[in-house]
Amino acid sequence: MKPPILIFVACGLALTTVASASSPTTPEPKHLQPNAPRTITVSEADTPPVVRVGLLQSTLILLPAEEKVANVFAGDTVDWVFDGGHVASRFISIKPKLANSTTDVHIVSDHGNEYTLQLREISGDEDLHFDSKIFITPGDKAAKDRLVEMPVFVPVAELDKVKQEAAAAKAAEAATLKAEQTKEESYRSQYPGSLHFDYTWDKSKGKGLGLQAIWRDDKFTYLRGQFQETPALYEVKDKKPSLINFDFANGLYTVPKELDNGYLAIGKQKVEFHRTQEAR
């Protein structure tokens, strides 16, 4: 009788092995799938639209092209991550850290528009498609009108940049002013040395006309006198006289060039002047 028992036990082990091999395996976890980008319209009078987000997946929210994010307020900042980047932009990245959680988010733009969204994590749903990218468009006329106006809020990053640029511009202006003052002071200190009183004329004729002094610097020629009537001023080149341009104020002629020879004349009165040969 013992041999049949041994056979029965062996068959039992074989059946057990077959049963174990044919038992169902653990089902693979479902994978979240991103939806195609979509546009949602946000209106103050309507219920905030729902955005489907996936566990540990990033959903990108984009404001209208004319706007930038000024501030973000969220109901749950522990189990949800909100990232607007390090510079002011129209983008906000949203990522949930807890399955089947929900929260709301309020976005204030630099144009003063407000957008409220309901966020829902969907890893427990039958439909595992989540929103990967959402474009927001305002539904209210007032909000649309504000898009074409100037921003009412300046993001902190841009404000800091403007302050830095203003400080740099002020410092540059101060440096330029200081350089100009230094140049002017240097010019004033050196200017007397650039004056040359090297003209000759008939002093008696000059006194009759009112001429008192003639001098020059590196760019101009000056004639000063007390004239009853303003004499005409001529330059003489190659023994040919010609009227020249000058400025006259308070008895001072300012000629925008160096004159070698010339004369002043009123009617028949005439005073010739010449630069000395040594100075030429």
From TrEMBL:
<keyword id="KW-0732">Signal</keyword>
<dbReference type="Pfam" id="PF03524">
    <property type="entry name" value="CagX"/>
</dbReference>
<dbReference type="InterPro" id="IPR010258">
    <property type="entry name" value="Conjugal_tfr_TrbG/VirB9/CagX"/>
</dbReference>
<feature type="signal peptide">
    <location>
        <begin position="1"/>
        <end position="21"/>
    </location>
</feature>
<feature type="region of interest" description="Disordered">
    <location>
        <begin position="20"/>
        <end position="41"/>
    </location>
</feature>
<dbReference type="InterPro" id="IPR038161">
    <property type="entry name" value="VirB9/CagX/TrbG_C_sf"/>
</dbReference>
<protein>
    <submittedName>
        <fullName>Conjugal transfer protein TrbG/VirB9/CagX</fullName>
    </submittedName>
</protein>
